[in-house]
Specification:
Blueprint lengths: L2 H5 L6 E4 L3 H12 L8 E4 L4 H11 L10 H7 L2 E4 L3 H10 L9 E4 L6 H8 L4 E6 L9 E7 L5 H12 L2 E5 L5 H9 L1 H18 L4 H22 L3 H8 L5 H11 L2 H28 L1
Parallel strand pairs: 1-2, 1-3, 3-4, 4-5, 6-7
Antiparallel strand pairs: 5-6
The structure holds NADP nicotinamide-adenine-dinucleotide phosphate.
Amino acid sequence: MSLLTKTGISSLQLCFYGAGSMAEAIVRGLTNEKLVAPERISMLNRQNKERLNELNERYGVQTIVQGSSNEDYLRGADIVFLMMKPKDAAEAIAAIKPLVSPKQLFISVIAGLSISAIEKLLGGEASVVRAMPNTSSTIGLGATGISYSPSVTHQQRTLTEAIFSSVGINAIVDESLQQAITGVSGSGPAYVYYFMESMIASAVELGLTQSAAKELVVQTVLGAAEMVRNTGEEPAELRRKVTSPNGTTQAAIELMDENRFTETISKAVHRSAERAGELGAAIERSITE
Ligand SMILES: NC(=O)c1ccc[n+]([C@@H]2O[C@H](COP(=O)([O-])OP(=O)(O)OC[C@H]3O[C@@H](n4cnc5c(N)ncnc54)[C@H](OP(=O)(O)O)[C@@H]3O)[C@@H](O)[C@H]2O)c1
């Protein structure tokens, strides 16, 4: 019997509280991988009925438009996904307090919202997963940092890891490292996009067409990432191998070093992690006020 079959995920009811882009990414992963039948998944939002119809047509999931009430979906779920924006989270989570029960698992992707804040909003100790996926989850190539509250059982952990594996890879970390996850893989895709923007602009300055520049840069980034993954070699080693003494790459890298490339990236990653902490603290304050 496979690990997944043992988790019994296919017999559970899943409710997505919030039906935006991250909720859709996870539902797409779950349904593509056939982990859960779509009729066992419900999705709800605040007001956008058109969006619910679209999700029903695309994935076959249940919504208030086709079936039961939102209250019934929330009450009947084995796993409730908390999928709203941080600004809406406190009000939305507090509103479901009368509907939830201690046997349910709560999986939150809300940036900055701590496990203890979620427990406070739900009215006491609960099985809570705090996850930080990234935008590449939408194409199944995400990287998700996952932390657990002490009451999450072994089986619930296996379930959670199966769920996020359907949209990419996972790193299980202590909750204190969630800010670091934000600085690295949460904000990370944008750093790479920024690097690609500069590469494309430089290629155009050197005379290439916009479309050729884009195609070359996309393939270069994709190829470099695949080289690291496929060869198992460290990026530093692969870099050394393509850097001939006094060659073109060395000339470029020397210029990057003179302009503090490593220091800039390091400061940026630290700043993103620090900002995640600031935003988290602001949410905590808004809950206790
Ligand atoms: N997108 C990413 O790459 C990414 C990465 C990591 C973490 N996250 C986290 O994922 C969460 C969701 O992000 P998103 O990009 O998916 O947001 P989004 O597209 O704006 O979706 C938010 C959803 O929450 C619903 N909602 C808000 N308040 C609600 C309430 N009181 N009751 C029921 N539904 C409510 C909204 O419904 P209406 O449309 O009807 O208002 C909407 O369906 C955020 O907390 C974000 O920090 C996102």
